[in-house]
Amino acid sequence: MNVTGCLMSGSQRLTDGCFCCSRCLGNRLFETHPECKDVFFLFRDVQDLEMLRTSRELRAHGLRVMSFIEKTVARLDQPERLEALAVELGKSHYHYNAAPKYYNYVGAEFICAVQPILKERWTTELEEAWK
């Protein structure tokens, strides 16, 4: 199966688990890489991880991340639209001074959040496609 097919095959299940995945992604990111909080002005000074776990703002950001991922998968066969989407996201994150090194952290935490949702559908090939 090609990369596009691989990603699309799990995307509906991922969409269904979007809320859970968005919470896991944000929580784990700040637990494993607390320096990422510096990019999020709302969370910079929050030291209590429990407060972050219940944060509406963090939950909303996680849902925006999952929405972006859903749009990305839907545009895999439309390179121009996919590029425009990625450029727009890059511009907004540049504006927030999000260092590129953080993207790798988010990617790794995304994999950790998605794997349990896709359960038996998770394969090495699917993991490589998401990476």
Automatic annotation (TrEMBL):
Family recorded in the similarity comment: Belongs to the globin family.
InterPro entries per record: Globin, Globin-like_OT, Globin-like_sf, Globin/Proto
Subunit structure: Monomer. Homodimers and homotetramers. Mainly monomeric but also detected as part of homodimers and homotetramers.
Keywords: Heme, Iron, Metal-binding, Oxygen transport, Transport
UniProt keyword Heme, yes or no: yes
Superkingdom classification of source: Eukaryota
Organism: Ilyodon furcidens
SUPFAM superfamilies, per database record: Globin-like
Protein name (record): Globin domain-containing protein
A Pfam family hit: Globin
Statement: the UniProt record of this protein carries the keyword Transport: yes
Domain spans labelled Globin: 6-131
PROSITE patterns reported for this sequence: GLOBIN
